[in-house]
Amino acid sequence: MTTITTRTVEYPADGLTMIGHLALPAGVDRRPAVLLGPEGMGLSDVERRRADALAELGYVALAFDLHGGRYLGDPEEMLARCLPLLADPDRMRGIGHAALDVLRTEPRTDPDRIAAVGYGTGGAVGLELGRGGVSLRAIGTVNALTTGRPGEAARIRCPVWAGVGSEDPIMPPAQRNAFTAEMQAAGVDWRLAVYGGALHAFHHPPVDHPVVPGVGYHPRHAQRAWRDVVDLLAECLPVTEDLRA
User: What residues does the Dienelactone hydrolase domain cover (predicted)?
Assistant: First the structure.
């Protein structure tokens, strides 16, 4: 296992002081980077460990914050903040751009090689960066089949991979169809993985607080979804880029 270093980063966004988790791979050279977004509850050790795992693979990884350093374990409080946020593309883009600026200014980051990977609300933020025309190498999302403002998906200039549980009541078949129709109409290079029998947030280990209905951990599919994310990065954002290509 390679030696990584981590540190906390503070930055302003959405009227709050955000507290992100930056993980750096061994070495001093510039590396491709991943902007990592959390579920609606907010940044937790789950995302911090994922950022660390990406750093071990050779990426600079920033797990960004949604709620000003808070983790919203109360489902009502979480929905009260996330639902208006998900309905406001400009707010989501503002949160994403603020974190992206932190990642781009990190000396270890190759600013021309960045991907966005996110879960739930964090995945929606990544998609909105793409719809806003941000140059990314890939967008990967789990539980974030959100649709955007008409026509804006045409600004997405990278492959999009999305994963969802087949039994997810928050992202039902109608939402899947709307999302894929948007991507197809915009000419996006898109893929959708449906994990059989999985609920919403199937990738997230059980938590010790109440959750919204329809949430459930599926260990096998959680591992598969992580491998799919890593494969997406290996394809679109290899740690060692062939400069002859």
Answer: 20-235
